[in-house]
Amino acid sequence: MMRATTSTFADTMRAPLLNLLLITGVAGASLAHANTSLAQANTSLAQAQTQGQTVAPPPQTAAVSPDAIKQREQELEAARARQKSAEEAQAKLKAEISALGQDRTQLNQQLIETAANVRAVETKIDEAETRLRNLNGREQQMRASLDSRRADIVEVLAALQRAGRRTPPALLVRPEDALQSLRTAMLLGAVVPELRGRAEKIAGELGELVALRKTIATERDQLASDRDKVRSDQTRLTALIEERQRQQSAREKDLDAESARAIALSKQVGDLQGLIAKMEQDLQTAAKAAEKAAEAARQAEAKAATNAAASAKQGPGAFKDKSRTTPAIAFAAAKGLLSLPVNGNKIRDFGGSDGVGGVQKGISLATKPGAQVTTPCDGWVVYAGPFRSYGQLLILNAGGGYHVLIAGMERISVNIGQFVLTGEPVATMGSTSQVASILATNASQPVLYVEFRKDGTPIDPGPWWAANEGEKVRG
Fold first, then answer.
1. Which of 71, 139, 207, 453 is packed most tightly, with the most Cβ within 10 A?
2. Residue 157: which domain range?
3. DSSP state at residue 87
């Protein structure tokens, strides 16, 4: 009776252990054997050709099977369904945007909300990718641990073969099958104590590996879903931006000429302060924007003087009006309320080294390729285009003598003279750094440079950033 029970246990245990050998790389021997056989076959073929023997020509391509034809038809049908779905979604989006018409408030609301959704999903994707890297690293560690104990596994397998009366079963493919077989074997109860203990340890590791694989699969599914969502939101955002710029072009007839003149004027100056002065003095649209910013600052100061208590209570609620054409609050009063213009990691701070022997006058944020850039504050665009070593440069006049400079993007989607709200999408990052000082340090990822100025002098932007996500102003 004991012999029969031991045999049953051995038969049950062999499959999972053989499978474990397969998981940990023992199957490589079979692959090596197959490669050896292939090499021998090639040698025999060469010898036959050398001796003048007739070698049969390779067989003609077999006719496509009905199953293959059916599969291709199904794939084609699925592609057509996806195309139809995309066309329907595009038509629906166009109808929604058309319904907005000239309603500036609704358009601004849609722009800011969609841009916020894009940035939120970008954050989720980044976090999911980090978790996946950690999980994949853990899986590799477990596999390495199992591989290092291969000799022990082989020893247990040999003992089980000696105890059994039948030939080993076919190799199982999945670790889930191996785990189930191990558990079944241990439930028999009549096993050699030493083998049982070692089998339990292997079963524990296999169980952890199975659970880990399920977690990785779940994370990958969620990541794929988030990527689909961000693509959909980006498509919507692109359409909304195009509509915003179309309406802006309808109001300003000479935008192209002004943009060309701005770039020509930018080549006549050598620094940022000179560029700001040149734009606001010599360029009509930028000059108008500067005048509006100055007038808005005067009104804000007058309001604060007559109603100091109300001014002190200004906060995120002041940004709710999407129809505004002037800043919701004075820039100086927005300390602790603004969000960074892009998702990313700060790699250089104000006052630190700029990488080329100088001092950093702003902050640098390493971002993902194609990341969405939004405005950190309300303001008027006084420059939008390439400038010196900054790549694409955007300058906002925030009123009260404050300017916000954002550089390093690949594409800017606003025009000079345009008033933008906090959280509006204004640019998109490229795939590599566009700022010369960042390129000098061999940074391969895109980097956004942000600088605040007061009356022409760079200032520390730190006090303006919100301390946590709940305090940030999204517009």
1. 453
2. 2-40+91-247
3. H
Q: Give tens-digit pLDDT for 102-161.
A: 677 888 888 889 898 889 888 888 888 888 888 888 888 887 887 777 776 666 556 655
CATH of the domain at 184: 1.20.1260
Write out the E strands in 266-401.
344-348, 363-367, 372-374, 379-386, 392-399
Of 201, 219, 247, the one marking the end of a domain is 247
Cα angle 305, 307, 308 (rounded to 5 degrees) comes to: 70
Q: In terms of domains, do 354 and 231 share one?
A: no
Is the CB of residue 296 less than 8 Å from the CB of residue 402? no
Residues 176 and 308 in one domain: no
Instruction: Mark whether 242 and 261 lie in a shared domain.
Output: no
Q: Are residues 228 and 258 in the same domain?
A: no
For residue 396, is pLDDT > 90? yes
Write the burial class of residue 317 (CB in 10 Å: 0-12 exposed, 13-18 middle, 19+ buried): exposed
Helices (H), 267-337: 272-282, 284-306, 308-312
Q: Assess whether 457 and 366 both reside in one domain.
A: yes
Distance in angstroms (rounded) separating the CA atoms of residues 396 and 383: 7
Task: Tell if the pTM clears 0.85, that is, is over it.
Answer: no
Give 233-240 contacts, CB < 8 A, sequence gap 24+.
233/114, 233/117, 233/118, 233/121, 234/118, 234/372, 235/90, 235/93, 236/93, 236/114, 237/111, 237/114, 237/115, 237/118, 237/372, 237/425, 239/93, 239/94, 239/97, 240/97, 240/107, 240/110, 240/111, 240/114
Identify which of 335, 341, 324, 355 has the alpha carbon closest to the alpha carbon of residue 405. Answer: 341
Domain count, the chain: 2
| Cα-Cα-Cα-Cα dihedral sign, residues 203, 208, 211, 217 | negative
DSSP 196-256: HHHHHHHHHHHHHHHHHHHHHHHHHHHHHHHHHHHHHHHHHHHHHHHHHHHHHHHH-TTHH
pLDDT digits (tens, 9 = 90+) for 320-350: 888 888 898 899 989 999 999 999 999 889 9
Q: Say if residue 238 is in the same domain as residue 277.
A: no
Residue 84 lies in a domain: no
